[in-house]
Amino acid sequence: MSLVEIRWHGRGGQGAVTASEITAIAAIDQGKYAQAFPSFGVERRGAPVEAFTRIDDKPIYIRTKVYEPDIIVVLDPTLLGPEIARGLKENGLAVVNTDKSPEEVKKLLGRDDIKVAIVDATKIALETLKRPIVNTAILGAFVKASGLVDLDHVLKAVKSKVPPRTVEANLEAVRRAYEEVVIA
């Protein structure tokens, strides 16, 4: 495995930073090297947020933002547009929380040279968590579409990062999105 870089896009309160951290924890638990870190503009609920994850089989010495990701993960469908796909490598992957088709997403991103994985993470979060916090649902889709980390390791990492009272609902969100994701 060579270095894989992931850029997460969401809004404050949706859990993009936590999702990037859970991914890194799961990768490390599998014996890989990983790093996760956020980038905030205005720190307030609802403001756009970026988070980054790097995974490799060898130590990672890069400490900059991810400018040319292999994968982008979009937690908030209102952010969809060409700017979100900036730098995404050719044949890269976009994992998107949406009820739109993969073709519609590619059109919104202005890219037809990428793979798209879609899941209605908002619906899953509302049904499992009773709140529109979509990070664990999008993680299930990410795991299935990317193949970078194993589902069992992600579930273990979720248990370590979410409040105890919401563990079971979050695990259900991950599992449902893993089953419901559409990859095109």
UniProtKB/TrEMBL annotation:
It comes from Ignicoccus pacificus DSM 13166. InterPro entries: Oxidoreductase_gamma_subunit, PorC_KorC, Pyrv/ketoisovalerate_OxRed_cat, Pyrv_flavodox_OxRed_cen. This is pyruvate synthase. Pfam families: POR. It is an enzyme of class 1 (oxidoreductase). One of its GO terms (molecular function) is pyruvate synthase activity. Keywords: Oxidoreductase, Pyruvate. Its EC number is 1.2.7.1. Signal peptide: none annotated. It comes from the Archaea. Residues 12-179 form the Pyruvate/ketoisovalerate oxidoreductase catalytic domain. It catalyses: 2 oxidized [2Fe-2S]-[ferredoxin] + pyruvate + CoA = 2 reduced [2Fe-2S]-[ferredoxin] + acetyl-CoA + CO2 + H(+). The keyword Oxidoreductase applies.
